[in-house]
């Protein structure tokens, strides 16, 4: 890898975590190219004014797609019209997941497990340098003691149930170089679920 800034794909980049990550990467001049893939377009996502400006930055490319479908995952790595034909995507950060509360089990299974495995499988096939899976801290016990990576998981929600399954499945994908991030409570500006809009 050269000393140039990396090329990054953010899956679920219009969701709460994704749009804040996109803002951070562009605002801090950390990428040479950034592709955002989401089933929700920036025009109807809950972007604040600053994020709307960020999504119009020349380094940001939006691709509409439902990542539950394997064919869409193949589009992740194709070069867009007019872009450098030698462009390769180095990092994929998966912020995409069905996280709306109160959905049926099957919706979470498809929108978390199937989606994540599809994306990770495609990333491995294309030789992505690093795949980052945003999981959840809810997969761990709520007991107030230190945990080890080897401790049993005790998911506290359907979302966490399928995030645990994703974490296990990533280990079985040949050639996938991955990192799992387990944030605790996620909230902030424009949050609509955990703390409320502020």
Automatic annotation (TrEMBL):
InterPro entries according to UniProt: Epimerase_deHydtase, Lipid_A_modif_metabolic_enz, NAD(P)-bd_dom_sf
Lineage summary: Eukaryota, Metazoa, Ecdysozoa, Arthropoda, Hexapoda
Source organism, top-level taxon: Eukaryota
Organism listed in the record: Cacopsylla melanoneura
SUPFAM superfamilies membership: NAD(P)-binding Rossmann-fold domains
Pfam families: Epimerase
Leader peptide range in chain numbering: none
UniProt domain NAD-dependent epimerase/dehydratase: residue ranges: 8-192
Name of the protein this chain belongs to: NAD-dependent epimerase/dehydratase domain-containing protein
Transmembrane portions of the chain: none
């Amino acid at each position: 890898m050269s000393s140039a800034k990396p090329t990054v794909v953010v899956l679920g980049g219009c969701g709460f975590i994704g749009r804040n990550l996109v803002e951070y990467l562009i605002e801090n001049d950390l990428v040479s190219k950034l592709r955002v893939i989401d089933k929700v377009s920036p025009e109807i996502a809950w972007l604040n004014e600053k994020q709307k400006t960020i999504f119009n930055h020349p380094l940001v490319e939006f691709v509409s797609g439902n990542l539950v479908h394997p064919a869409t995952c193949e589009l992740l790595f194709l070069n867009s019209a007019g872009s450098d034909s030698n462009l390769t995507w180095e990092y994929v950060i998966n912020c995409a997941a069905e996280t709306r509360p109160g959905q049926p089990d099957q919706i979470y299974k498809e929108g978390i497990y199937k989606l994540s495995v599809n994306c990770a499988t495609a990333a491995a096939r294309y030789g992505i340098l690093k795949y980052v899976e945003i999981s959840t801290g809810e997969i761990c016990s709520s007991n107030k003691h230190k945990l080890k990576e080897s401790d049993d998981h005790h998911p506290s929600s359907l979302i966490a149930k399928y995030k645990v399954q994703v974490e296990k499945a990533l280990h079985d994908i040949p050639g996938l170089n991955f990192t799992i991030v387990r944030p605790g409570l996620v909230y902030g500006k424009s949050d609509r679920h955990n703390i409320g809009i502020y």
